[in-house]
Amino acid sequence: MVGVAIPNRYWKVSTVDGNVITTSTLYENLWMSCATDSTGVHNCREFPSLLALSGYIQASRALMIAAVVLGTFGLVATLIGIQCCKIGGDNYVLKGRITAVGGVFFILQGLSTMVSVSWYAFNITQDFFNPLFPGTKYELGEGLYIGWSSGTLAICGGLCLVFACKSNTDENKNAYPYHPSRGTVYSGAASKREVASTYDKNAYV
Question: How far apart are CA 51 and CA 3, in angstroms?
């Protein structure tokens, strides 16, 4: 879902609060600014300069890209760690540890996404409730809600992987291996022969 939130254009949408007639709607994301008029025509332009952007937009970009990278690592580690995968052989302890590492990557992905989206939303609400802000005021767009949802799911999934691998490791430690008895096993026929050999031939009348 992080891959869906990043290209979404509606991270913030211009508000209609206090406007009697709205002829155009402005909306932006991390990469471009767009406008649509009453006829339904959309015009978008990318931000011309990276260094001219606000600091929170640059930080949000970096965090979202880091979230994609971390999620990719987590997905690869989880696929390697599952028991049906041939990579790693039958060493299930190693597979469990690899899966736990994948869960940690997913948790970091969720945290990066939540920080990025929440920081972006904080700046929107700060400008919206500032009565001295001279520019266009925006409201929260659907891209932010998708980001919050994806971050929450990534954190929950990562925690499930980590705790599942931890419980499997504890079960393996508490399991007692079976050691068969090393004593000599005698068959029934052998025992009968031994009993018969204890009697001398003169014992029979």
Answer: 24
| Residue 137 · residue 25 · CB < 8 Å | no
Read off the pLDDT of residues 60-89 as tens digits, 9 standing for 90 and up.
999 999 999 999 999 988 888 877 767 766
Measured over the CA atoms of residue 58, residue 59, residue 64 and residue 68, the dihedral's sign is positive
Please give the Cα distance from 168 to 99 (Å, whole number): 11
For residues 22 and 34, is the Cβ–Cβ distance under 8 A?
A: no
Report whether 93 contacts 172 (CB < 8 A): yes
The C-alpha atoms of residue 115 and residue 113 are separated, in whole angstroms, by 6
Q: Which two tokens mark 143?
A: 């891209």
Q: CA-to-CA distance for 108 and 121, rounded, in angstroms?
A: 20
What span, in angstroms and rounded, lies between the C-alpha atoms of 34 and 50? 17
